[in-house]
Known about the structure:
five-stranded antiparallel β-sheet; 11 helices; 379 residues; two-stranded antiparallel sheet; 58% helix; 7 strands; alpha+beta; 2 domains
Amino acid sequence: MSNFNKKLIFKKFLIDNTHFFLLTTLSLSLIVWVIQAVNFLDFVSEDGHGLRIYFIYTLLNFPKIFAKLMPIMFFISLYYTINKYDEKNELKIFCINGISKINFLNTLIRYTFIFFILQILLNIFVIPYSQHKARSFIKTSNIDFFPSLIKEKKFIDTVDKLIIYIEERVNDSQYKNIFIKNDLGIDQSKVIYAKKGNLIENDGQRSLRLFDGKLINVSENKITIFNFKETNFDLNNFFTKSITHRKIQERNSFEIIKCVYVFHIKKVSYNNFEIDCNKDSINEITQESYKRIIKPLYFFVIICGVSFLLIGFRENFKYKYNKLFVFFLGLFILIFSEISINFSGKNNLQSLSAIIIPNIFFLILYFSLRKKLSFAENK
């Protein structure tokens, strides 16, 4: 059989597997995203943000969900595609046309580089950027959903430098017995009490129009009290205080890698705007660096594990047991990859083990599989 026809056969298999992977991974990611979005709704709305802010915030979390599901869906898609081809006797056709299973295995390993590189790009660039943007977006967005923020007879302090209490809510824009405390700085604050107030919106700008109340200015040891018939309180320059600092998952990948290298190799600690690289944070930073760089190596372990399905055909009485073995082997690889990364960073030995183990797994599975495939083809 010509090399051109062999390439066509490989291409058909790889396209079928890629289609199944993308369809299932995107579908499952969407389901998980919707579930998380429902949970995020309370979080975002309680901070006083509207549906636009909520949608953008949840959308920026989608790359993280997709990347998290990639390894397991990679395993499932290959497991399904190889079984489907075997049930249709297409694997036999490969062999009849002179395509050795070892050659097929090597093609699958080259194919795996696509998923490895995609996971690396997501881990190193896309996810830290999107996570940082999501938090920054919430933090810097003005309060634009004031009615959802207000609860009767409850002090609301989710907004930075602002506490609001409303005794009675007539409707979404009319309130009675309003208390507002606005912190203006060190030893400076403004306290307002009003018998009633209306929410006013004009060209996207919101304010509270307050009636019949008192304005108390507190500055160091000086207190000034004013009575008013009517005044406006601007709501446009307040931000949520729920997010105050960047998490390690949002940090720049190159700064994380630099920290691991400098701390472990050069034995130096340092702090800067991007990262605090010291003994208190190094374990978490090391785990995050391994999660971004080392964990994608398990794609090659997964491809070797699932390729044990190539041993024999479904007519073989041991084939069902082989399918079960491959399924549980795949689950073991997926679980072990999570555990090994979580234990990395605790000490140098565990960190070194986390790097070496996926490579050893790959070599053991690859050469064991080659030996079994070679033996099966020579029978």
